[in-house]
Write a structure and sequence with these properties.
six-stranded parallel beta sheet
Length: 366
Amino acid sequence: MTKVLIVSRKSVHKFDDGRSVRICQAYRDIYRGSQITILSLDDTHSGTYPLGDGMQEICIFDDAASIAHAAEDSNYPARDLHVLSEIERILKNDYFISILVGVVKHSDVVIFEELHMASLITDRRVEKSLQGKTAAYSAHNVERDLLIDTPGVTVAEKIILESVEKNIASKYEKIFVCSRSDGDYLRRHSKAEVVFIPNQIEKVPQTTPAERQKNKKMLFGNTNFTVFFVGSNHGPNLDACDFIIKELCYAFPNINFVIIGSIGYTKLREHRHFDLKPKNCLLFGFLEEGLKNMVIQASDAMINPMFTGSGSNIKVLDAIKNNILLITTEFGMRGYEEGAVECVVSDNTKEAFIETMRRQIPGGQT
């Protein structure tokens, strides 16, 4: 039996975000019948967790990761090149590297998730342990592209990141990508086999229009046009959520704005005095999958006003799975092919997003 090792910078066993679900689902499909182990850094604890279908996760506690993640969110948005500082932190983690080298010895295929973990191949101990193994880099996106429209980032910083990305990609024999454009770029800088793995998910049964209206009344208290946003408690999502609460809710007072995910708890604490929160903003928090799909299908559209971030925008899968219209920025569609979902795309500014929304809302409901 082939033994596959996946090296991840964050744990996945809680399945509390789209990234975790994508990693497990994608590699189960690619390496069906193999023994799959995920080795991850975790900012709260260590442990081994069964994930089903012959897959397990080994979490290694990393207090530096805890500090780094807290700093990342508290310093946001002044952290556009945090990927480089995180690479530096990972490469200095001798304890994790020693465990990684030990696990690699018992693996046939080793996949490094994202540029952060892919950088480990530059460590001589890791490089030596990979001899005779198949080493792959799973690029959730091209990091260079995420800086194109980022204000405050210098040309020199962009060049440094691009150089690091090209150098790391050149060391792998296989690269997984989420979009063909990313594959075309990385193929120019590496002799690796580039494998396209689109972000996709099976669709769930759809509710009828009558059921949608009934559920809308039950869940939201009215039958107004309703949009939803899904997000974890992460810097770029916090910015998007603030934009929704502080600007969109007031620009469209007759629309319900539903916020789903752990980010909702943060906003509940901020707006614990409910008279400070817009009346048309509904904070749901983390929902079990069945209830989450019910809330989503009671809505009329998903909004995705993302202007910064990294990785594929996994939350888009919720729109695909529930076959619902997506109103998104161009940046928010990173990691997806054209036609992957029914969507309306705006330029990457707040003003453009508001105008795009205004064109999509039925007359009289804005």
